[in-house]
Amino acid sequence: LWDVLYTVSVSVSNTGSVAGATVPQLYLGLPQPANEDYTPVKVLRGFQKVLLAPGESQTVTFSLTRRDISYWDTFAQQWIIGSSSIGVLAGFSSRDIHSTTSFSPLTGASAY
Length: 112
Known about the structure:
Blueprint: E1 4-13, E2 20-22, E3 25-29, E4 43-47, E5 50-52, E6 57-65, E7 71-73, E8 78-81, E9 86-93, E10 96-103, E11 110-111
GO molecular function, one term: beta-glucosidase activity
Subcellular location: Secreted
Domain Fibronectin type III-like: 22-94
């Protein structure tokens, strides 16, 4: 469950003239299960406070474990990695998304 399978990097910049801090957040949009279970539209999977000087940029890297890209199947009573695409969303809150992409983790569903 805790093996790191993927890393996601985002760049954060301070375009202002005053030093500041921000907290970039990483959300995943997990595939919906085939059974009656439902997963949330977005799930928070990482955040990191970043201090930035005026004009400075930093790259923030988030590690995604097997658990991060899985959902609990209540019928099978096990963690499942869905077979379809997983959405990756980065921003400063769940309503302030600045970057999106997606990836397909595995060919076929994986249970453990």
